[in-house]
């Protein structure tokens, strides 16, 4: 599973948690049904955690391992938040106020944090591919770089689905930065050629640097709970 | 799956801490395959919860998902978060060892931003022994449930009395022998307070405060730095 796949799932989980929180607030009598859905999201997060575990336990030290470790820790927090919310609801008299508080101040924000960390990880993955291509611009390295850049480009266009028409909000960047990011990725993709000259390699490095500065600068700690659905 | 208690978790973390010492020793002695084998067992998703941090965390999260809001829920949350940080360090160390980088693995165990897995396992150990037990007792106290309080204090006393297999209790707890003896005396007294007819909750509060004060001075690493 690519970091973009993880990001897409997190985006959808976040929307569902927002909906569950809204339902808890408007109709506390639905606590049992909402607990059931929270349990589903809890399992979904667990599945994403296992993906990160698999990566971490096989990757050697380096930026990718760090990226997955940060994402994993963030997912662990979401998972524990959801366990806590379930504890609030799985009682003879469910405490919907406490559950709502855990969702609003914990799980929803922490899912958004994880979402940005997964996009950040996608950028780190491309940067690792780029370094490999710089060192050895073989066909295999070009294919890996092209594939991961395309994944990132596709995600930025369609990976943050409706109702969100402002994907830059979900990413926590400006519209201008979002446009610049897409342009830089498109340019980088065009820079991948067979048997590149030193000048062509340097041009790719420069174009990618413009994109990487944005993905790597995503701020996962400054999130408003409503960011993902603005 | 058996429901974890502060005592069963402490016992498990005590074991895991010992195994992490063996991992570090193997790395130092260039036995990377031995180190990898041990850490893989500690992270075994199908392992015995008393010996696998992975399955221990699953049990703890299951317990949290059925624990009502209150001090115990908060204490469990903190314990789980701390142990997840240790788990992440151990998973990364496992990856480092798979890639034959012992130095990087040692860093995950000893020096990563949280202070490393060893630090967080020790932190979890102390929390399990005391903060979680205190929270359970506070919850029971709120409900005037002296029977539960008595059972939990007794479980803690028994664990501290004979739950350490291969080292001195006070060393494991980061306190002096004198402090340990004082603490066990206060715990014994606290048990008697709760078993009296009627239970002497006022005196219990004093005895219990003496216990928590001693452990507040433990020399074990501070927790929750991540």
Plain-language structure description:
The complex is a heterodimer of chains A (230) and B (226). Helix content of chain A is 77%, strand content 0%. Chain A contains eight helices and no strands. The mean pLDDT of chain A is 93. Chain B has ten helices and no strands. The longest helix of chain B is centred in the middle third of the chain and has 28 residues, at 71-98. The model of chain B is unreliable at 222-226 (pLDDT under 50). The chains are: A mainly alpha (230), B mainly alpha (226). The interface between A and B is medium-sized, with 27 and 27 residues.
Key structural traits:
heterodimer; A: 230 residues; mainly alpha; B: mainly alpha; 10 helices
Low-confidence stretches of chain B: 222-226
Multimeric state: heterodimer
Q: How many individual helices of chain A?
A: 8
Helices and strands of chain B: which structural class? mainly alpha
The largest sheet of chain B, given as strand count, sense and whether it forms a barrel, is:
none
Radius of gyration of chain A: 20 Å
Kindly state the mean pLDDT of chain A as a whole number?
Answer: 93
Residue share in helices of chain B? over 70%
Gap from first CA to last CA of chain B = 30 Å
Bin the strand percentage of chain A. under 5%
Q: Can you give the mean pLDDT of chain B?
A: 88
Beta-strand level of the residues of chain B, as a percent range? under 5%
Compute the number of strand runs of chain B. Answer: 0
Shape of chain A: elongated
Structural Rg of chain B? 18 Å
pLDDT < 50 stretches of chain A: none
Main pleated sheet of chain A: none
Strand element count of chain A: 0
Count of helix runs of chain B: 10
| Shape designation of chain B | elongated
């Amino acid at each position: 599973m690519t970091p973009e796949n993880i990001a897409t799932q997190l985006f959808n989980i976040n929307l569902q948690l927002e909906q569950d929180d809204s339902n808890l607030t408007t109709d506390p009598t639905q606590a049992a049904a909402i607990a059931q859905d929270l349990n589903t999201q809890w399992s979904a997060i667990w599945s994403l955690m296992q993906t990160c575990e698999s990566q971490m336990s096989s990757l050697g030290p380096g930026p990718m391992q760090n990226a997955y470790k940060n994402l994993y820790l963030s997912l662990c927090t979401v998972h524990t938040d959801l366990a806590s919310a379930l504890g609030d609801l799985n009682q003879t008299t469910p405490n919907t106020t406490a559950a709502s508080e855990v969702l609003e101040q914990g799980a929803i924000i922490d899912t958004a944090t994880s979402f940005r960390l997964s996009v950040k990880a996608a950028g780190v993955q491309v940067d690792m591919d780029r370094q490999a291509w710089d060192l050895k611009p073989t066909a295999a390295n070009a294919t890996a770089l092209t594939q991961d850049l395309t994944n990132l480009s596709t995600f930025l266009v369609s990976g943050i689905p409706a109702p969100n028409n402002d994907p830059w909000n979900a990413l926590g960047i400006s519209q201008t930065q979002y446009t610049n990011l897409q342009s830089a990725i498109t340019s980088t993709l065009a820079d991948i050629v067979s048997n590149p000259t030193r000048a062509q390699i340097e041009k790719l490095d420069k174009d990618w640097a413009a994109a990487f500065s944005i993905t790597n600068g995503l701020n996962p700690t400054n999130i408003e709970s409503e960011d993902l659905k603005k | 799956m058996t429901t974890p208690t502060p005592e069963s978790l402490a016992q498990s973390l005590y074991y895991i801490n010992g195994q992490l010492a063996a991992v570090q020793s193997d790395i130092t002695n260039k036995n990377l395959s031995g180190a990898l084998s041990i850490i893989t067992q500690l992270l075994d998703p199908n392992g015995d919860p008393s010996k696998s941090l992975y399955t221990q965390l699953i049990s703890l999260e299951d317990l949290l998902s059925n624990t009502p809001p209150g001090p115990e829920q908060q204490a469990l949350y903190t314990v789980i978060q701390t142990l997840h940080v240790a788990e992440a360090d151990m998973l990364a160390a496992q990856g480092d060892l798979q890639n034959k980088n012992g130095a990087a693995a040692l860093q995950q165990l000893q020096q990563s931003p949280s202070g490393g897995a060893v630090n967080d396992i020790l932190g979890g150990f102390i929390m399990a022994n005391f903060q979680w037990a205190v929270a359970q007792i506070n919850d029971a106290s709120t409900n005037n449930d002296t029977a539960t309080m008595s059972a939990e204090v007794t479980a803690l006393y028994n664990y501290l009395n004979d739950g350490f297999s291969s080292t001195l209790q006070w060393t494991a707890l980061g306190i002096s022998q004198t402090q340990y003896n004082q603490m066990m005396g206060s715990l014994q007294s606290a048990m008697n307070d709760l078993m009296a007819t009627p239970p002497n909750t006022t005196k219990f509060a004093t005895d219990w405060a003496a216990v928590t004060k001693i452990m507040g001075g433990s020399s074990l690493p501070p927790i929750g730095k991540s």
